[in-house]
Amino acid sequence: DKETIATGAAAAAKGGFTSIACMPNTDPVNDNRGLTEYILSEAKKKAVVNIFPIASITKGQRGKELTDMADLVDAGAVAFSDDGQSVESSQIMRRALEYSKPLNTLIIEHCEDKNLSSEGVMHEGYYSYLFGLSGIPASSEEIMVARDTILAQEAEANIHIAHLSVKGAVDIVRNAKKKKIKVTAEVTPHHLLLTDS
């Protein structure tokens, strides 16, 4: 069964949540005013918790062309993310951060250099070698976290780095915070518990 706004909201309420943010990695992708307004309309009719839509940074989450961020904020989007995918183009990410500042909104970034992670299925290290599985090097995440914090600093914009999974990325965020860069980050439970350390 596919999750709907009503079933997702009900599950959140059962888990004790009063408010949730819905990510844009849906079918269709939340990358336009009409879909953002639809989410809010359905939430008002069917949801038992508050729902805050997060819109896609790029059209179709393809990383090629920015969405109309001002229009999406006007429609009710509270933040922007290409959830589960990095914005590979530094120029597009820079523009997204520049646009986000006057809109007083947040960019949420999944940091992964696909050129390095390619066919990787787990963290590169002892266990990936032991099991003969393609590993993802820590540098895949670290490079993008460094890039995005530098771009956020240049734009004086807010950025949230989603689901950090390597120590080097945590160090980069820590150093960025010392420089007063407007960066936040989080780690998921499985990235803390299901590690090879």
TrEMBL record:
The record's Gene3D superfamilies line, in alphabetical order, gives:
Metal-dependent hydrolases
Keywords of the record: Pyrimidine biosynthesis
Ranges where the Dihydroorotase catalytic domain occurs: 2-167
Q: Name one GO biological process term.
A: purine nucleobase catabolic process
Q: Name one GO cellular component term.
A: cytoplasm
Mind listing the GO molecular function terms for this protein? allantoinase activity
Q: Does the keyword DNA-binding apply?
A: no
Kindly provide the name given to this protein in its UniProt entry: Dihydroorotase catalytic domain-containing protein
Origin organism is marine sediment metagenome
Lineage, uppermost ranks: unclassified sequences, metagenomes, ecological metagenomes
